[in-house]
């Protein structure tokens, strides 16, 4: 019996398989490229629908971390202990001038002198974001209304602590100094606040 040589047949089969794989890969790349080229995203214009005038001049910011500790009678019938909660609150109080009531008649210029009738400095914001509250310890049940009242109390305490540092006076002085620097930079020699 004559021995057949299958080696050329397998070599030919291997070459055909490689060619088919090459063609399939090449076609997939082309079809993917045409898909990407066919996909078009319209550029939309940004449209401003409203402009809010910001007429605050914030000149002083007070930062504080508060530790709020509260307790109430326990809801457990067995135990006569107290439920407790400790909350850490990080916040800031900003103070400065609300310049929105300032009108043209509140500013007068005479040569190199300018007179400005500024409104009184005040607290413009008390900011404690929801993410700035952290429950450090909690024992017992605390309703969401009670937690909200604690958070509101934290804002009031933060504002009271800022007022104790004389934030309004500091904001007034710092604001007037800044306005004076700007106006002197514009060429005025005398800036008078009335």
In this structure, how is the largest beta sheet organized?
Answer: 4 strands, antiparallel
What is the general shape? flat
Radius of gyration: 36 Å
Percent range of helical residues: 25-40%
Beta-strand content estimate: 25-35%
Q: What is the succession of H and E elements?
A: HEEEEEEHHE
Number of helices: 3
Q: Roughly how many Å apart are the termini?
A: 123 Å
Count of β-strands: 7
Q: Overview of this structure, please?
A:
With 194 residues, the chain is of the alpha+beta class. It has one domain (56-193). It has 3 helices and 7 strands. The protein has helices at residues 7-38, 144-164, 167-185; strands at 56-73, 82-98, 107-110, 113-116, 122-127, 133-139, 190-193. The strands form 2 sheets. Strands 1, 2, 5 and 6 form a 4-stranded antiparallel beta sheet that branches. The radius of gyration is 36 Å and the shape is flat. The termini are far apart.
Write the layout of secondary structure elements.
Blueprint: H1 7-38, E1 56-73, E2 82-98, E3 107-110, E4 113-116, E5 122-127, E6 133-139, H2 144-164, H3 167-185, E7 190-193
Parallel strand pairs: 4-7
Antiparallel strand pairs: 1-2, 2-5, 2-6, 3-4
What is the structure about, briefly put?
With 194 residues, the protein is α+β, with helices and mostly antiparallel strands. 37% of the residues lie in helices and 31% in strands.
């Amino acid at each position: 019996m004559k021995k057949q040589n299958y080696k050329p047949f397998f070599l030919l089969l291997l070459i055909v398989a490689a060619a088919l794989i090459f063609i399939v890969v090449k076609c997939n790349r082309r079809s993917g490229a045409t898909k990407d080229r066919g996909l078009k995203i319209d550029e939309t214009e940004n449209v401003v629908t409203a402009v809010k005038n910001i007429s605050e001049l914030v000149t002083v910011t007070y930062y504080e971390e508060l530790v709020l500790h509260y307790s109430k009678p326990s809801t457990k019938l067995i135990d006569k202990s107290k439920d407790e909660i400790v909350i850490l609150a990080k916040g800031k109080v900003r103070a400065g001038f609300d310049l929105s009531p300032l009108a043209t008649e509140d500013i007068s210029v005479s040569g190199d002198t300018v007179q400005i009738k500024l409104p009184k400095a005040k607290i413009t914001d008390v900011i404690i974001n929801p993410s700035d509250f952290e429950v450090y310890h909690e024992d017992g049940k605390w309703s969401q209304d009670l937690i909200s009242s604690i958070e509101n109390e934290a804002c009031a305490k933060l504002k009271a602590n800022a007022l104790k540092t004389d934030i309004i006076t500091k904001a007034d002085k710092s604001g007037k100094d800044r306005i004076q620097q700007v106006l002197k930079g514009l060429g005025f020699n005398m800036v008078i606040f009335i």
